[in-house]
Amino acid sequence: MIAILQPLIHEHDAGIVSLAALLCGCGVWVTTELFNRVLISPPNRKARWLLRTSLIAGTTIWCTHSVTMLGYRPGVAVGFSFSLTALSLLIALAGSLCSLAIAGWRWNSIPVRLLGGAVMGLDITAVHYVGIMAYRVQGSMAWSVPCLVLSVVLAMALAAGAFLAGGEADRQIRHTAVMKALLMLAILSLHFTGMLALSITPSALVRHFSSPETLWALVLVTAGGAGAIVLSGLNIALLDGRSEREHKRLLHMIDDMPVAVMTVEPDTLCINYANATSRTLIRSIEHLLPVKAEDLIGTCIDIFHRHPEHQRHILASPSNLPHNARISLGSEILDLKISAINDNNGRYLGPMLTWALVTKEVEAENRILHLARYDSLTGLANRNTFHGLLDTRLHSASAELSVLFIDLDKFKLVNDTHGHRAGDTLLRETARRLQTLCDDHSKNECRVSICRLGGDEFVIMSESNDPAFNQALADTVIRSVERPYRLGIDLNVRVSASVGIALCPQHGTDSGTLLSRADIALYAAKDAGKNAFRLFAESMEQNLQDRLRLEDELRKALITGENLFVFYQPIVNTRTDSITAREALIRWYSHELGWVSPTVFIPVAEQSGLIERLSQFVLHRACRDAMRWPDGARVAVNISAAQLGQGTLGDMIATTLESSGLPATRLEIEVTEAALVDDESRVMEELYQLRATGVHIALDDFGTGYSSLSHIHRFPFDKIKIDGSFVRDSTTRPDYAAMVRTIADIGHRLGVTTVAEGVETQAHLETIRAEGCQEMQGYVYARPAPEPHDRDTVDRLNAQAAKPAA
After folding, report:
1. What count of other Cβ atoms lies within 10 Å of the Cβ of residue 280?
2. pLDDT score of 4
3. DSSP-based three-state secondary structure for 555
4. Residue 556 pLDDT more than 80?
5. pLDDT tens column, 113-122
6. Catalytic residue among 456, 700, 701, 790
7. Which helix (H) or strand (E) holds 102?
8. Lowest mean pLDDT among 106-120, 286-300, 343-357, 465-479
């Protein structure tokens, strides 16, 4: 091998060859660095960097060949063909452009890199042999085909190996040093292996060839021009290196950010950069996209849109930026924020997208929005939504509608007795029934919607103000609610509903008035005994105002105690005419209203929550007065059904007895059967506790309302008071007399004292004696009267009430 290369070495000028090698090394270094810029540049800048790189690469190949040929000493006169020399330069430039364009197209693809390297090897070979054709010698040239083929294969192999060994990392060359060394070897080795294929035979033919001085000048000019180009490229590479380092640092910073970032080519809308977070997120939704994360670069962002026309319009001009968008992609939701990227001179470079998968966040937002608009327990629209619907409807062109307020009767009893879970189940089932009812009544021209206001209150809005339609709807609501509810395996309950109806525009044209009047109608339905509906009437509003005024007056009276009195009516033994007890009866005189009947103000006290204070007043006064009675008779005090079963009655009675000094055996508590129906078990428990202290318990108004023998069977009442309605008609109606006799007989057999109420005449007295009643109470013996210490005040108030109004 040395023997073969020895003549070749002696035929070259060592200085010039060294210059060519230095020139080649510099050119290859600059070419590789600039090619990295090609790889990482956005599409709109790739072409510019590709041309620069191709210019340096082609010049390096050509200059290396030209300078080494100038250093070649064949031993004969030599010259050059200008046209073929210029052609070799063009081949160098064009071949470099082709090879680098191929390799840069898919640098991450090994076959593509190999192809680009092979083209580069062919380019080097073509430059050399076209350059040889431009070489003129005083003699003839002959070629060794095997050596020629060897030179071509070796150049292509080394160039392809350079591109392959360079590798890929983050869209750049991984091993730049290896690539530079192999590429430099491909260029230099081609010259020497190619020259092995050439043999020159001197000739005596005299021609005009370049003088040695001219050749040296050509060497200097070629080297100078090549050096200037290479140094220019080197300067570009050095200057751009700093920018590149800053760019890499910025990209690394963006890559490390937890926010997904992508940049887009403004002309094609193809993605030219995606940070690590973007690629990670893309991998998580690859199943929804037609592209893999590895192939994201160069892909158009249309893949994120089913109908990308709108987004294309937004991104067409930087004046539309910044822009925010939320995109549904299958089951996922993407949040996009698009802003414009400008260079230091303010020139628009393209859009930048920051994006995130916000599916869970949107689901949470939707849940919060749903909770803000819908009731979490029943799923019905809530109070806020109802007010919005009502206001929208009232402001529409045809504001004809109705509002139905619905309140569940005895729901509190279910909640307190069976627990909140049972109450919640009842509310959900009620909501389901009402929703079904509204759906059944909705028509194309009349929509009926249901909302839950809170607690056990519901409201229906109907787009019909026809009274008949809404009354029928309310009746259907009542019948739907009163059906039994199955709240558990062994738990079935019944509740009822009261409904108030207001119509628009008949009863009001604004939401405040309509809701107020529907509420007034609801109160009227409850006052009528519940489980009923009422259509608003003007008189209801006046009644409500009167009731509120009465409540206010009563509240003031309870605070001051002024003009509140306790009257007493004796309860007398029918055989001895002796007083066994006195019933305490509350009386109230209002400065504005005069004497107010207990049948009027006691229901108001029960509905307004004042009944406990009123009962406490009566109990304290009655126990204190009873201590002054010389006959030692018991005092009977009525207890409202609203107080029983609350757990407060026992403490109130114990405190009162202690403060007044009255023995418990001298106190009678009268309860009605209605109190036993609402929450029988709890009421019975409380009554047993009271009776254990010595307090007597009487069952009042027996024979009316919820009369049931089970009550007197389950609890050992001390007295049964027969309602006055039976006594008053017992003298004219044998059936009523038989009822009195039957109750008296039951009491006798049970060992319970029976008291006949409403005994107003001698005939009544004789009848109840004949029927076996042991005690009686009524006008025939005495009317209710105040205690002596209140008598003067009562007389004065009676006189004042008797005066005609001025």
Report:
1. 12
2. 46
3. helix
4. yes
5. 889 889 998 9
6. 456
7. helix 82-105
8. 343-357
DSSP 318: G
The verdict on pTM exceeding 0.70 is: no
Catalytic residue list contains 456: yes
CA-CA-CA-CA dihedral for 484, 486, 487, 492, to nearest 10: 60
Closest by CA position to 183, among listed 13, 53, 38, 15: 53
Q: Are 23 and 226 in contact (CB under 8 A)?
A: yes
Rounded to whole angstroms, the Cα distance separating 434 from 426 reads: 12
Q: Does residue 252 surpass a pLDDT of 70?
A: no
Nearest to 81 by CA among 130, 33, 29: 130
* Residue at 182: amino acid letter: L
Distance CA 192, CA 24 (A): 14
Number of helices (H) and strands (E), helices first, in the chain? 27, 28
Judge contact between 96 and 120, C-beta under 8 A.
Answer: yes
- Give residue-wise pLDDT tens across range 10-42: 677 777 788 788 888 888 888 888 888 788 776
What are the distances in angstroms from CA 601 to CA 311, 420, 560, 724? 72, 33, 17, 21
SS (H, E, C) 449-514: EEEEEECCEEEEEECCCCHHHHHHHHHHHHHHHCCCEEEECCEEECCEEEEEEEEECCCCCCHHHH
| 295 CB-near residues (< 8 Å, 6+ apart) | none
Sign of the C-alpha dihedral computed for residues 17, 20, 24 and 30 taken in this order: positive
Three-state secondary structure call for residue 559: helix
Burial call 315-353: b when 16+ CB within 10 Å, e when fewer: beebeebeeebeeebeebbbbbebebbeeeeeeebbbbb
Name residue, tokens 């005939």.
763
* pLDDT range class, residue 2, cuts 50, 70, 90: very low
DSSP string for residues in 232-298 = HHHHHHHHHHHHHHHHHHHHHHHHHSSSEEEEE-TTT-BEEEE-HHHHHHHHHTGGGSSS-GGG-TT
The contacts of residue 93 (CB under 8 Å, 6+ apart) are 54, 55, 58, 59, 62
Neighbours of 240 (CB within 10 A): 17
80 near 135, Cβ under 8 Å?
yes
Q: Report the distance separating Cα 372 and Cα 173, nearest Å.
A: 56
From CA 635, how far away is CA 583, in angstroms rounded? 6
Q: Looking at the DSSP assignment, which residues form a beta bridge with residue 485?
A: 493
- What is residue 319's DSSP assignment? G
Token pair 């059936």 is found at 735
